[in-house]
């Protein structure tokens, strides 16, 4: 088996409204099939603010402008890419609390990349097993 060591740095957002959280279902990667926070990797030359705004628009169709740093999470994951290849991933996630925009229409269809679509989920009905390691921060509200 080939093992590829990699790192991923991304920006993600938590949007909560009436005890519901906006999540995407992952289409691929280490968290495939899990519910995850909208967001993704920082592109070359991009600021963290630009990354958060771009990823939110791509995955949820929301134009966001009001957000505040919540936490930074480092997660380690080893997963099988296919029968012959494995990834040893260090994932650094910069997570923001995002204020729900006044006007929006959620993008519920796949983006052709990471997301199978965005949806609102009742926080109390989600189990930790449903959530990606990044999205688990919504269950740890202090």
Structure description:
It is built from one helix and eight strands, in the order βββββαβββ. By secondary structure, the chain is mainly beta. The mean pLDDT is 92. The protein has one domain: Nucleoside Triphosphate Pyrophosphohydrolase. The chain is globular, with a radius of gyration of 15 Å. 27% of the residues are buried. The strands form two sheets. A four-stranded mixed beta sheet has the order 5-1-7-6. Strands 2, 3, 4 and 8 form a four-stranded antiparallel beta sheet that branches. Strand 3 (20-26) and strand 4 (35-36) form a beta hairpin. It has one helix at 48-60, and strands at 2-14, 16-17, 20-26, 35-36, 39-41, 67-80, 85-98, 115-122.
In short:
With 142 residues, this protein is mainly β. It has one helix at residues 48-60; strands spanning 2-14, 16-17, 20-26, 35-36, 39-41, 67-80, 85-98, 115-122. It has one domain (2-139): Nucleoside Triphosphate Pyrophosphohydrolase, CATH 3.90.79.
Write the layout of secondary structure elements.
Blueprint: E1 2-14, E2 16-17, E3 20-26, E4 35-36, E5 39-41, H1 48-60, E6 67-80, E7 85-98, E8 115-122
Parallel strand pairs: 1-7
Antiparallel strand pairs: 1-5, 2-3, 3-4, 3-8, 6-7
């Amino acid at each position: 088996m080939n093992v590829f060591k990699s790192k991923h740095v991304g920006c993600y957002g938590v949007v909560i409204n009436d005890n519901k959280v906006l999540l995407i279902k992952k289409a691929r990667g280490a968290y495939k099939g899990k519910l995850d926070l909208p967001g993704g990797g920082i592109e070359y030359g991009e600021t963290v603010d630009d990354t958060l705004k771009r990823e939110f628009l791509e995955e949820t169709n929301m134009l966001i402008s009001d957000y505040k740093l919540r936490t930074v999470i480092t997660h380690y994951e080893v997963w099988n890419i296919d029968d012959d290849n494995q990834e040893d991933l260090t994932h650094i996630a910069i997570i923001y609390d995002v204020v729900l925009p006044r006007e929006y229409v959620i993008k519920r269809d796949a983006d052709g990349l990471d997301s199978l679509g965005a949806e609102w989920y009742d926080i109390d009905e989600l189990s930790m097993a449903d959530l990606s390691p990044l999205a688990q921060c919504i269950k740890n509200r202090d």
